[in-house]
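Review form for a predicted model. The reviewer records the input and the model, then writes brief findings.
Reviewer: anonymous (R2)
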Amino acid sequence: MTADAKNQAILFPGQGSQEKGMGKGLAETDADAMDLWKQAEKISGLALRDIYWDGDDAAMADTRHLQPAMTVVCLNLWFCLKGKCAPMGMAGHSLGEYAALAAAGALPVRQTLELVSLRGRLMAEAGGRGEGAMAAVLKIPLEAVEDIVARAGAATGGLLIVANYNTPGQYVISGRKDAVDAAAALCKEAKGRAVVLPVSGAFHSPLMAEAAAEMQKQLAKADWRAPNAPIYANVTGKAERDPARLLELLSQQMTSSVRWIDTMTAMYADGARRFVELGPKGVLTKMVAANLAGKDDVVAVSAATGEDAYSCAR
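Model under review:
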């Protein structure tokens, strides 16, 4: 176990962190890692290795493919650390929360793969109606973003919310397409930027209510257990240990905002000083720096390969 394990937090990324070849190197050298890919393929009915090791960007971005594949990548990296690291807590960004729950033992791995495969299908079906959109809002303070959301929603009559509180300089809005377009225009007037995201629907908004209701039925059937480490939930940004509470919050996740700023500040307040992101690209590693700027005792590292993950346990 690392000397600073008691101050170490584990983070798992979600949609948007995918890249070609992810998880391939580890799977080719670790039979258990390869078996997890095969298990996810059997559960999802998808050729995940073909898609992510040899496919194109469009196929990799499809939420039906992405959710089980990213979960496999994250969990395989965690298994490189398991038994060598006792983190003070875990958190996952959106989809990544499922990997966090499985890594902490709150959900069995097989059931987690079943749940994320279902989640991917439900979100794709909800997005297929073409009514929703999302956009990242950059370089605008929160108070101004909330004002823009309120004005755009009122002007169009369309639902619009702040769906992701990622960093003090990056928020994501989600809702009806016309409301997102109106908000993007207002962002430009405010000297900021709104970047429409390549997603199929208004995720983390009430427009996902039907999908969330179906998801909740399956979540309630899962074998929930107390986690080995606190899980910092997306919905509250706070540490949770009670299985019933974790079920309740995960059932709300698809229609609720991701409070990542609160998650990072809560982890720091609870003693986290070393943040290890297990997954491709290092998106969350950059968010740690943005959310905990000015705190010189913070270290954030990204472990995208098995070798990276092993090194975090030394």
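Findings: The beta strands are 8-12, 89-92, 132-138, 160-167, 170-176, 193-196, 231-232, 239-240, 274-278, 299-303.
Further findings: DSSP finds 14 helices and ten strands in the chain.
Recommendation: see findings above.
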